[in-house]
Specification:
about 65% helix; about 210 residues; two-stranded antiparallel ribbon; about 5% strand; DNA-binding; 2 strands; homodimer
Chain lengths: ~210, ~210
Amino acid sequence: MEGEGSKLLINQSIIVNPLIMARPREFDRELALERATRVFWAKGYASTSTEDLLVAMRIGRQSLYNAFGDKRALYLEALERYQRGTTSGHLQRLKGPSSPLAGIEALLLGLIAEDDGQRAMGCMGVGAASEFGTGDPALVELRAKVVPVLFSSLVERLHEGQARGEIDLAMNVEDAASFIQMTMTGLQLAARSGAGVDALHALAHFAVDRLKID
Amino acid sequence: MEGEGSKLLINQSIIVNPLIMARPREFDRELALERATRVFWAKGYASTSTEDLLVAMRIGRQSLYNAFGDKRALYLEALERYQRGTTSGHLQRLKGPSSPLAGIEALLLGLIAEDDGQRAMGCMGVGAASEFGTGDPALVELRAKVVPVLFSSLVERLHEGQARGEIDLAMNVEDAASFIQMTMTGLQLAARSGAGVDALHALAHFAVDRLKID
DNA sequence: TCCATTATTGACTGATTGATCCATAATTAG
DNA sequence: CTAATTATGGATCAATCAGTCAATAATGGA
């Protein structure tokens, strides 16, 4: 390509630094992406029209296609951004408390939004898994990049819990880590199905109690 | 309405017995409904076009609208039929073994299809919950009619497990029943996400082991 | 000031959507 | 046979879909 300036990769979006400057974008790309995320999160991919997106993002049609490519690319970027944010939060809560079991409890309780509207949206990642299953390679790959991160941190904390005597040494930590991740998706789907805060808290506590040595 | 004969309500579909007979249906309604179910199950509601349905059901467009109303009515009937079938299977497996914990184990293992294609479809009910959340009153109502049936049977078997000394008397059986139902959805979603038979079996066994007195 | 480039706006496109219309066929009661 | 009724198949519909085009605006460098 001729006449192209240097490229800087910042936060997954390509910032072109052209030799000759062009008209600057009028909207906040990150804000628009966040707004798009909310729509996809609430309604899923197929049920979200580009018109829905334009209204929520408060930009024109051509701006969407200029800045994000197309509907699918926007969805993938929204989901990736969402996963990055939530995974970071999960890891923080898991690793926060000094007690491993308290960390796991914080992880599970952290999934449960107090606000009814927010809680009823469930988890966008779970929604994506349910909508596309194993049918979309790009989503499978994205999932494969996110899930193991939390998994290994869980294994770590579970080992730590065994060393501290909080968790039975006979328990297989990999199985336990998978079980906790399954519990997370179970909680998210229960939330999406309309479960209340108390019911979800009870579920989370019950699950954590199952890991305690007695 | 004039000239209308008696109505018999059979299996949720209205069988009209008109005074004057009309042209009989050429296709098997139940078979067509089963074929429609597979499509909705695999792809979800929004991503399924009426054309998809016609091809799978092997009927003409007008036949679909005559026999089932419209796309939404067909979906609701398919989901209801699906739920009736699966719930019946769940109850059978739960109540089959003489040991309550073995029943719960059979319930969970029974969710895991051996066939890869079938397993990767997950559960249509879970898919519906994920796709519509609490947004569709008809689906919320349908769920509210199905979930408590299994729940009360679970409570029953858990009580029985406590009486037999398989389960700790200190365990709250309602919490445990909810936990098992959450585990079921977690398993279904893991299956939809591509988990293999072995991984799912391990998850099921781990969950059941958490209920055992030690 | 003019140029090269990108952003914005609104009209537009062809395809697909769910659903209906209509002509014809098949059935049984009378 | 005729009448009444429902089923079928093909054409068709208006609405919506995702995406493109083209005209204009804004920017900084030359």
